[in-house]
User: Fold this.
Amino acid sequence: MLDKIGIAKRIAREIQDGYYVNLGIGIPTLCANYIPEGMHVVLQSENGILGMGPFPFEGDEDADLINAGKQTVTLLPGSSLFDSAMSFGMIRSQKVDLTILGAMEVSEEGDIANWKIPGKMVKGMGGAMDLVASAKNIIVAMQHVNKAGESKLLPKCSLPLTGLRCVKRIVTELATVDVIHGRGFKLIERAPGISVEQIKNATAGRLIIEGEIPEMQIS
Assistant:
């Protein structure tokens, strides 16, 4: 079973040279630390940063330099800062090649719920709705089950939706799955030490299993 760092490492393998990438709040922000050395990737934050680097070491933080999740970040040479209007102009005009988001639920049709739990206070819906409506490619980093052991990969989301039919791939502590519209979740990889049967038991939505399922390679 993967921890959050393991999930981030696996998703970092999806990033390609030359990509402009937006990292959502939570596990996705960890991906910045695991981009392969020598690869040129530009990380975008919707609060107005282009060219984020890894998280700063303890003692090197700048409280005025934060990402959309209010975490302190670093800047790489050539980075730029601008207002949120320009940032969302980039997102809405599809200048972002890959968006990596966290989620509370994903449906077998690729619907995502990641902004609100009814009855709990939230600061706002943030930029996720623009990102899911405009992104070319969306990968979700999430836990396969909730704290009660209930599946978060569902036939239909029960929480308020962020976007419809937009998720293409999901990486959890148990597996990598793709969303095949009209069919369900297709199992692509197993986390190290996890069996196909464990993944089946943890997935409430339809799960497509074809052939031998390889184990994830986490460098």
